């Protein structure tokens, strides 16, 4: 199911999306604060692993397109990480550098929280951000996440959002 926000179209990822996603998921600068897909094949595996989670759980990161022109500008949303399980439902977002600084991560995060609360009826959602990723920390703060603790083995802060109310 597709979701539209004011400026974004969120849709389940398709294998046909992978080359456009790899343009930034494989870019060292774009992924400086997180895992980078080294090859197109690894990116396909990454997307396919998340889509398997969508079939199993009903949610996974979306391909994020600009409503203005339909261009793929990001990947993100709700997920339970199939490659590092055990952290619960998370929100994550990864954008092409050309999309940085435009408020898209905030727009995606707010849509994801609404989906988690209103459709999935989740009690909480988690997120991670590296200390040096100030933009991501601001997005999570604005969305109402609370910093829980530093996870040294991941070199990231763990954030929680309680969805009650």
Could you explain how this protein is built, in words?
This protein is α+β, with helices and mostly antiparallel strands. The chain has a single domain (3-162), classed as Gcn5-related N-acetyltransferase (GNAT) (Aminopeptidase). The protein has four helices and eight strands. A hairpin with a 5-residue loop joins strand 3 and strand 4 (72-79). Helix 1 (18-25) crosses helix 2 (40-57). The model has no long low-confidence stretch (mean pLDDT 94).
Describe the structure concisely.
It is built from 4 helices and 8 strands; from the N terminus they run E-E-H-H-E-E-E-H-E-H-E-E.
Spatial sequence of strands, sheet with the most strands: 1-2-3-4-5
> Helix fraction?
25-40%
**General shape:** globular
What structural class do you assign from the helix and strand content?
alpha+beta
Task: Note the run of SSEs as H and E.
Answer: EEHHEEEHEHEE
Unreliable segments (pLDDT under 50, ≥5 consecutive)?
A: none
| Beta strand % | 25-35%
Can you say what the CATH homologous superfamily is? Gcn5-related N-acetyltransferase (GNAT)
Given the structure, what is the number of helices? 4
What would the keywords be for this entry?
165 residues; alpha+beta; Aminopeptidase; five-stranded antiparallel β-sheet; three-stranded antiparallel β-sheet; 4 helices; 27% strand
